[in-house]
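Tip: read the tokens left to right.
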């Protein structure tokens, strides 16, 4: 479920969307993003917004760590009723993850390639994300313990375009400024209503 996406939005373009943005990430790399890689996220901070760099993959439940203590992280969060996730659902742990397009494997196995989904109207898109700052864990045995800012994003039932390729789920995608604000600041009882698919027809599919 969405373990590859692409983002091409430069820091200056994000500043045009969030005029009060404090760039704490420096130069933002664009291109494909894979699990456990660093990528930009936007958080609410001090009445404004902050652009940060974080590592893709939230802390997984301890029972899923390897015998040597390695935690490879969770890239997508669906069950927000789980006690493991509930502690991070408040505004302080929500983020926006800029995305230009995202991939799902086409049916038929490895040789079938990926289907890429992008906005049909070329609108700015953000995944509805969760982030956990300063988390200490072992992500790779060779690196030992590291302390990282981590993130992942919510999923929901698919819309028609995604469901034709991946019938189980799609990322929660926000395309409107009021949705971005609500996700970053609203109480969970309100913000959870955003955990729903984009309308059918909102995405186009390519290779």
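Filled-in amino acids:
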């Amino acid at each position: 479920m969405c373990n590859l996406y692409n983002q091409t939005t430069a820091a200056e373009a994000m500043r045009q969307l969030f005029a009060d943005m404090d760039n704490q990430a420096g130069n933002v790399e664009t291109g494909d993003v894979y699990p456990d890689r660093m990528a930009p996220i936007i958080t609410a901070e001090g009445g404004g917004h902050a652009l940060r760099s974080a590592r893709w993959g939230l802390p997984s439940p301890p029972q899923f760590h390897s015998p040597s203590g390695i935690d490879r992280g969770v890239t997508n969060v669906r069950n927000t009723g789980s006690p493991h996730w509930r502690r991070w659902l408040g505004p302080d742990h929500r983020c926006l993850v800029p995305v230009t397009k995202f991939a799902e494997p086409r049916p038929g196995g490895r040789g079938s390639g990926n289907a890429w989904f992008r906005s049909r109207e070329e609108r700015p898109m953000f995944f509805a994300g969760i982030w956990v700052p300063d988390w200490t864990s072992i992500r790779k045995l060779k690196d030992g313990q590291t302390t990282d800012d981590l993130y992942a994003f919510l999923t929901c039932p698919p819309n028609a375009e995604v469901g034709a390729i991946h019938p189980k789920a799609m990322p929660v995608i926000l395309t409107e400024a009021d949705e971005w604000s609500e996700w970053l600041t609203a109480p969970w009882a309100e913000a959870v209503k955003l955990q729903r698919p984009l309308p059918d027809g909102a995405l186009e599919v390519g290779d």
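The chain has one domain: 5-206. The chain is about 15% helix and 40% strand.
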